[in-house]
């Protein structure tokens, strides 16, 4: 119950107000004086008592979620209504009015309205967009307001620029949106028919002939199979004709309309003109060629029982049984199989093979799984190999072969990609070094040692013999770097010779370089690591392959192996020396494993420990070198010792550390400089012995100790 509007029963309207200015009502817009404060004409911008504010845009409930503006919240959201309006037609006998159907779109983001009229065939009326999208004002006397969402509902009439539109229906989105706003959507209404449209339809129906019509619907087949073509490989045996031969064909069957096209394969230098098609695309009858039909004998439909004179109300009855009709049987996809004979207007064409799409089609539709091709011609003779003249001994084999490739000889091309990948990169040398000895009975040559370097970048070999003092043999380069042929090959032949590869070099292998037989007895650490890293390329360094060989031999001697471990490891420590381990593998496998494979197993299962430095040996080496070279610069030596003895203990060799190691190398450099000043040879063996003592790995029977 509201309180009466009497003094003492109302609140002070100025409570909480902070603005009491008089609002500005008039201003200039585009140099025209207009009223701008019609909505805020009171004191402080408030409306006057009793003033009714007219809505400017549609009001929507806020709901839950973020408070977005209308142009963002209702972007691309449109209310769609089916509507119609009635238009009067004057001075025409056939019609007095028209009923024109249209679509009314209300855009929620800015309350704009658009009216479109669908195109009607042969209407004679300009149709399309009747009202472009914009805000439409209400009819007078409310022309200062605009249409909002409250004015739209099914069954309502709206007036747009003098035309009255009746809303008859809406889409599902529009109905759901209006229900969320609390609007009860009315039931759809029927649109009245247009009298003149009905008259035109009756006139068109009366103009149609009364003869029966049988419709053939091929649209579904076209839409389902458009672009799908079956391809068959076939041939036509025309050898019976004069100068005839067997001709290869390609048959295309179009599933969209059951038509067939045939193209001929014209081989080069066949003497035939390359015709575009052997058979144009069309439906292919099975019993062709057929005699020509008389006029009217072949029709799309057959008619029986004519009642009444022709042209004076006669009636025709469609013959559903097609009595007397000429039937032509055409080829379909079910008639085309591998081995079948197709009658192409009197020419017998045999299908021999098909493509993968055709096989999948017949496999899915007809369940055929056998698609064996039909052999209809002898296999083509193999192309004779290129005869290369034998090597004449001048230059390399590759260089001589390049002179046979063209009139202008070109140098052989090297594998540049392999060279870039296997060339030296920082600490990666990509060079495998092996220690070898000569396989000879001569005592002098048997003691000689050689270093064989294999360069992975170009598959070349280099043999170097380290000089040994008082051996009677001049050391140095034994074999120039280059590719080395394997022995037992003919020199003058057409086939390229086989050269030594990286897989041919391993510990225990025998190689022959220029009639010198070498036995590889050791390798450096980099060679072992490289071969183990690329074990698929080097079978002798593949641990799993070696274990497979060892397992096959160990199963035969299980008891002997157990007794061997009990004898050599009585305490059950689980470790045995490498020499004992090598003897065991030699006894079990015999010649099944080469020396490199035994060393690979030893490296894989070994427990490596850093060796302790023997201080006495180190001091003995240093004193021996000082004595041999008459070293007298003890002042400099004392200064170096005092410099590195930072703790002033007087004993810098008590514990080996990197600082002491650096001091040792500096001492060796000092000795070398002093020796060079005296004109004596530089004692390089001092540095070598120091490196061996200070933790460097040395080869001992092919394994790291």
Give a brief rundown of this model:
By secondary structure, the chain is an alpha+beta fold. The protein contains 17 helices and 24 strands. Strands 6-5-4-3-8-7 form a six-stranded antiparallel beta sheet. Strands 12-11-10-9-16-15 form a six-stranded antiparallel beta sheet, with helices on one face.
Draw up the topology in text:
Elements: E1 26-29, E2 32-35, H1 70-73, E3 78-88, E4 97-107, E5 112-117, E6 128-134, E7 157-160, E8 163-170, H2 172-180, H3 195-207, H4 219-225, E9 229-237, E10 246-254, E11 259-264, E12 279-282, E13 303-307, E14 315-318, E15 341-344, E16 347-354, H5 356-365, H6 397-402, H7 416-422, E17 431-438, H8 443-446, E18 449-455, E19 460-465, E20 476-482, E21 510-513, E22 516-523, H9 525-533, H10 543-554, H11 558-568, H12 578-589, H13 595-605, H14 615-628, H15 634-644, H16 658-677, H17 684-693, E23 699-700, E24 703-704
Antiparallel strand pairs: 1-2, 3-4, 3-8, 4-5, 5-6, 7-8, 9-10, 9-16, 10-11, 11-12, 13-14, 15-16, 17-18, 17-22, 18-19, 19-20, 21-22, 23-24
Whole-number mean pLDDT: 82
Low-confidence stretches: 658-663, 671-705
Total number of helices: 17
Calculate Rg over CA atoms. 53 Å
| Helix content range | 10-25%
- Main sheet, how many strands, which sense, barrel? 6 strands, antiparallel
Strand line-up across the major sheet: 6-5-4-3-8-7
Shape: flat
Structural class: alpha+beta
Task: Report, as a whole number of angstroms, the end-to-end distance.
Answer: 109 Å
Strand content: 15-25%
GO biological process, one term: regulation of neuron projection development
Protein name: EF-hand domain-containing family member C2
InterPro entries: DM10_dom, EF-hand-dom_pair, EF_hand_dom, EFHC1/EFHC2/EFHB
Keywords: Cell projection, Cilium, Cytoplasm, Cytoskeleton, Flagellum, Repeat
């Amino acid at each position: 119950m509201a309180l009466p509007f009497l003094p003492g029963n109302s609140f002070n309207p100025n409570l909480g107000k902070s603005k009491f200015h008089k609002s500005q009502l008039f201003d200039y817009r585009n140099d025209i004086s207009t009223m701008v404060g019609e909505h805020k004409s009171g004191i402080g911008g408030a409306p006057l008592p009793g003033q009714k504010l007219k809505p400017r845009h549609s009001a929507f409930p806020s709901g839950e979620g973020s408070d977005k503006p209308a142009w963002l919240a209702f972007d691309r959201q449109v209310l769609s209504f089916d509507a119609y309006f009635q238009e009067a037609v004057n001075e025409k006998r056939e019609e007095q009015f028209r009923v024109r159907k249209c679509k009314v779109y209300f855009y929620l983001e800015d309350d704009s309205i658009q009216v479109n009229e669908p195109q009607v065939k042969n209407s004679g009326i300009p149709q399309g967009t009747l009202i472009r999208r914009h805000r439409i004002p209400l009819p007078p006397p409310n022309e200062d307001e605009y249409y909002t969402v409250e004015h739209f509902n099914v069954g309502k009439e709206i007036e747009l620029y003098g035309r009255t539109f009746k809303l008859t229906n809406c889409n599902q989105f529009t109905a759901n949106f209006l229900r969320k706003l609390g609007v009860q959507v009315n039931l759809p209404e029927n649109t009245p028919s247009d009298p003149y449209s009905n008259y035109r339809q009756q006139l068109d129906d009366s103009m149609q002939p009364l003869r029966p019509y049988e419709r053939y619907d091929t649209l579904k087949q076209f839409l389902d199979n458009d672009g799908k073509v079956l391809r068959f490989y076939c041939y036509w045996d025309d050898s019976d004709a004069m100068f005839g031969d067997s001709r290869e064909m390609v048959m295309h069957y179009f599933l969209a309309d059951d038509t067939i096209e045939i193209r001929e394969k014209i081989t080069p230098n066949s003497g035939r003109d390359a015709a575009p098609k052997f058979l144009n695309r069309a439906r292919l009858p099975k019993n062709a060629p057929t005699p020509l039909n008389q006029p009217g004998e072949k029709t799309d439909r057959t008619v029986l029982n004519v009642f009444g004179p022709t042209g004076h109300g006669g009636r025709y009855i469609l013959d559903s049984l097609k009595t007397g009709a000429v039937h032509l049987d055409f080829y379909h996809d079910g008639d085309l199989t591998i081995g079948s004979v197709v009658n192409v207007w009197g020419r017998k064409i045999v299908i021999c093979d098909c493509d993968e799409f055709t096989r999948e089609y017949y496999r899915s539709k007809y369940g055929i799984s056998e698609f064996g091709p039909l052999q209809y011609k002898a296999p083509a003779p193999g192309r004779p190999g290129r005869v290369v003249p034998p090597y004449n001994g001048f230059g390399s084999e590759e260089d001589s072969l390049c002179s046979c490739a063209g009139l202008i000889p070109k140098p052989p091309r090297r594998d540049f990609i392999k060279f870039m990948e296997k060339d030296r990169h920082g600490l990666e040398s990509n060079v495998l070094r092996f220690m070898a000895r000569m396989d000879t009975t001569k005592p002098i040559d048997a003691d000689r040692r050689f270093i064989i370097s294999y360069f992975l970048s170009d598959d070349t070999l280099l043999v170097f013999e380290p000089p040994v003092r008082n051996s009677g043999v001049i050391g140095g380069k034994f074999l120039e770097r280059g590719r080395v042929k394997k022995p037992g090959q003919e020199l003058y032949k057409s086939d390229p010779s086989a050269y030594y590869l990286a897989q041919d070099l391993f510990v225990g292998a025998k190689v022959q370089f220029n009639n010198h037989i070498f036995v590889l007895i050791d390798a450096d650490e980099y060679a072992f690591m490289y071969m183990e890293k690329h074990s698929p390329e080097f079978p002798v360094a593949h641990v799993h392959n070696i274990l497979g060989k060892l397992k096959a031999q160990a199963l035969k001697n299980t008891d002997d192996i157990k007794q061997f471990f009990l004898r050599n490891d009585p305490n059950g420590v689980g470790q045995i020396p490498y020499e004992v381990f090598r003897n065991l593998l030699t006894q079990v496998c015999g010649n099944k494993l080469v020396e490199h494979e035994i060393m690979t197993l030893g490296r894989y299962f070994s427990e490596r420990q850093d060796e302790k430095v023997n201080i006495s040996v180190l001091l003995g080496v240093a004193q021996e070198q000082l004595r041999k070279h008459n070293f007298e610069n003890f002042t400099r030596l004392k200064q170096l010792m005092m410099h590195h003895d930072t703790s002033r203990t007087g004993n810098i060799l008590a514990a080996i550390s990197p600082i002491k190691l650096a001091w040792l190398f500096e001492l060796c450099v000092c000795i070398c400089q002093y020796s060079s000043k005296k004109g004596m040879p530089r004692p390089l063996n001092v540095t070598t012995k120091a490196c061996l003592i200070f933790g460097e790995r040395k080869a001992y029977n092919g394994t790291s100790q």
